[in-house]
Amino acid sequence: MPHIETDLELIEAVLEGDTKKYAILVKRHQKLVFSLALRYVKKREDAEEIAQDCFVKAYKALGTFKKTAKFSTWLYTITYTTAMTFLRRQRLDTQPIEADEAYIQIANPDSSFDSNLIERKNISILLEESIQALLPDDAAILTLFYKAEQSLEEIGSSLGMHANTVKVKLHRARKRLKERLKMVLGDEVEDLI
Amino acid sequence: MIAMEEKIWSYIDGALPADERAEVEILLQTDSKAAMLYEELLKLNEELKGMELEEPSMSFLRNVMEEVNEQTLPAPLKTKLDTRIIYGIAAFFVLVISGWLIYGVLSSPSASEDTTPLFSMNFDFSKLNSVFLNVVICTVSLALAGLILSFIDGKLKQNMTQKKGS
């Protein structure tokens, strides 16, 4: 069975001059970094630009990476700051749909959450769309908690928040998500969640 | 209800201490509403765990690596902090302080004049200007030398890393 190199081993190899190993690191983390970037920008091209910028920044600063921390946590911190810089630069209106507005949108028959969507009964699409409608930080916390398997402390460190704040935001995000899914799916929610 | 929901979420996350965990387990067995909510949250939790991550375009990795290859090879932090420079700075300070003390001893009255101690703290301020000037010149020269040396050191290391990389 081939030996799967850890992030730290790959970083050591890159620092010793084997730059090709960096491609393995990128491949390993690209989905999460890209998904995280998508929590802050709507367009895939923008998220890709952020993710690419993040990996280049991480490469340039690889020598300063403290091996006591997790590489992924460090990478997510860079993703977050890169996304913030991107948003500032682009001056995009990234005001998320607040919970109350979202409910109004759901109740509106002309909204994107129409009957066709309910008929699809595709929970993963619904879930993704519902997460996208949350506040960007809340959506990012959900992604980091469930997909990056980061602890509250690690998420706090990546997003520059206290662990308790992350905990509160995580609870709020899940509550809003559940309520949103209930509003969209109505009675069918019992079957789906 | 909100507090109960939060507690159940914490229970699902495995973030509750043993006593509170036992409390929630009793609640789930005795309260049907709580049990229903637990089932609902558990399903949502599973959905969240199983959600798909977005994949970037096929060219993403190639684009990143193309840009990365244009960059200088990152140098480990330890090579940036050369201990020799730190020892050099420490030696400089030791030298200056020692010089100052020796000057104090030598400029104090001789031992035959018993009225004053060997090391006089009564500084002759008339000599201050010349002494001060000397110290300033020494400090600036040494700091400059240190900076030049560290710059040369940095350049040599950079060349070595680039050679290693290529």
Automatic annotation (TrEMBL), chain A:
DNA-binding found in the keyword field: yes
One Pfam short name: Sigma70_r2
Keywords: DNA-binding, Sigma factor, Transcription, Transcription regulation
Residues annotated as domain RNA polymerase sigma-70 region: 25-91
CDD domains listed in its UniProt record: Sigma70_r4 (cd06171)
InterPro entries: RNA_pol_sigma-70-like, RNA_pol_sigma-70_dom, RNA_pol_sigma70_r2, RNA_pol_sigma70_r4_t2, RNA_pol_sigma_r2, RNA_pol_sigma_r3/r4-like, WH-like_DNA-bd_sf
Gene3D superfamilies: 1.10.1740.10, Winged helix-like DNA-binding domain superfamily/Winged helix DNA-binding domain
Source taxon at top rank: Bacteria
Record-annotated RNA polymerase sigma factor 70 region 4 type domain positions: 126-177
Keyword Transcription attached: yes
Annotated NCBIfam families: sigma70-ECF (TIGR02937)
Family of the protein in this entry: Belongs to the sigma-70 factor family. ECF subfamily.
Name of the protein in its database record: Sigma-70 family RNA polymerase sigma factor
